[in-house]
Amino acid sequence: MFPCFFIRTSMLQLAPLEAVLFDVDGTLCDTDPLHYDAFREMLQEIGFNGGVPIDEEYFIANIAGKHNEDIASILFPDNHERGVKFLEDKEAMFRRLVKDKIEPVKGLYKLKKWIEDHGLKRAAVTNAPKKNAELMISLLGLTDFFEVVILGSDCEHAKPYPDPYLKALEILKVSKEHTCIFEDSVSGIKAGVAAGVKTFGLTTRNPAELLMKANPSLLIKDYEDSKLWSVLDELDNKAKA
């Protein structure tokens, strides 16, 4: 899938690494199943799709990783206002669910320690509503870890446009050449790539073949993936050279 020599050469260009940017949903925590359950239940209740529940394929293609304004237009093309109200109710349901069921992506705290030990700057960059993002980050104990949280709604364009990541680079005062991004959706990876930043794609839920269409620099299963730590070790070695 990725030639090893190409990966090594490409990733070594990150040195010296200055900053790490994270998406939130599906990247810090595996929340897509909660979003899927909330959409599936609430859409069926209002008779969407003739009352037939949406399946995971529909969720991945039309909802996962997208900004709520875009989702409203997809689900309710003839009544955007209704779509916006529906999504407000859906997000409230999600926040009730996530309080008891949030789980960090495997290896997250190991990577967090590595980032802290190396004194890197960091930001969370998300299409999630502010209340959702703040709640998830707080539940994961990462409120003090992130220097800034960038919302898609605070930018002219949300992901898949690069605006949120470009804003993070500007606020952190770091270069795109020495920053990396972790993302789990096609929309998010496209945003990172468009910003000119090397982007890791996590196959938390979305299939690898789908994420590959967005041209990530490297796909990893989670933060314990040996491919990730090989890159980080190489960066360490280069910094010491």
Widest beta sheet: strand line-up: 3-2-1-4-5-6
Taking pLDDT < 50 over at least 5 consecutive residues as the criterion, the unreliable ranges are none
- Label the overall shape: elongated
**Helicity range of the residues?**
40-55%
Q: Strand portion, in percent?
A: 5-15%
Largest sheet properties: 6 strands, parallel
Mean pLDDT: 94
Q: Please state the structural category.
A: alpha/beta
Elements, N to C (H/E): HEHHHHHEHEHEHEHEH
In whole angstroms, the N-to-C terminal distance is: 30 Å
- SS summary, helix count: 11
Number of strands: 6
Radius of gyration: 18 Å
Protein name: Beta-phosphoglucomutase
InterPro entries: Beta-PGM-like, HAD-like_sf, HAD-SF_hydro_IA, HAD_2, HAD_sf, PGP-like_dom2
Organism: Salvia splendens
Signal peptide: 1-19
State the gist of this model.
With 241 residues, this protein is an alpha/beta fold. It is built from 11 helices and 6 strands.
Q: Can you give a write-up of this model?
A:
Keywords: Magnesium, Metal-binding, Signal. Its cofactor is Mg(2+). Residues 1-19 form the signal peptide. This is Beta-phosphoglucomutase. With 241 residues, this protein is of the alpha/beta class. It is built from 11 helices and 6 strands. The protein has helices at 4-12, 32-45, 56-62, 68-75, 80-101, 108-117, 130-139, 163-172, 186-194, 208-211, 226-240, and strands at residues 19-22, 121-126, 148-151, 179-183, 198-202, 218-220. A 6-stranded parallel β-sheet has the order 3-2-1-4-5-6, with helices on both faces. Helix 9 links the parallel strand 4 and strand 5. The radius of gyration is 18 Å and the shape is elongated. The model has no long low-confidence stretch (mean pLDDT 94).
